[in-house]
Amino acid sequence: MDAYRNPDESTFAVRRERSTRRTAKVLAVKRQRLRDDLQQFVDHIGLAISPRVLEVKRQRLRDDLQQLVRHLGLIVPQTEVGSDFSPEILQDALDLLGDDVFVQFVRQIAQEEFGVWG
């Protein structure tokens, strides 16, 4: 029990890795839901998509991702006692996804939320 109260470096590394993987899973699920939603949207309106409609849809996706990024600290456990959610964990999780377009979109939003990107 003493090791839990006084964690060492390896404990922090394990927690960080677990947090990174959990964040990647959350982002992957969100990405798939956004893709499905966008595909359904495109299927329903056909090829005659106006730029205004696409901009509204993009803003909704952006708002949804902003909310996710703001609340990642609640979803992912802290890696260190008394720490907030770390943008570095988000960076590591995005690296696991391998989807450059989605990663760039989330990075842009995270930079707006966290300031300078890590």
Describe this structure in words.
- The relative contact order is 0.15.
- The longest helix has 37 residues, at 9-45.
- With 118 residues, this protein is an all-alpha fold.
- The protein has five helices and no strands.
- Helix 2 packs across helix 4 and helix 3 crosses helix 5 (100-114).
Overall geometry: elongated
Helix fraction bin:
over 70%
Biggest sheet, in brief?
Answer: none
Count of helical regions: 5
Percent of residues in β-strands: under 5%
Mean pLDDT: 77
Query: Can you tell me the residue ranges where pLDDT is under 50 for at least 5 consecutive residues?
Result: none
What order do the helices and strands follow? Answer: HHHHH
Strand tally is 0
SSE topology:
Blueprint: H1 2-5, H2 9-45, H3 51-75, H4 87-97, H5 100-114
Helix pairs in contact: 2-3, 2-4, 3-5, 4-5
Summarize the structure.
This protein has helices spanning 2-5, 9-45, 51-75, 87-97, 100-114. With 118 residues, it is an all-alpha fold.
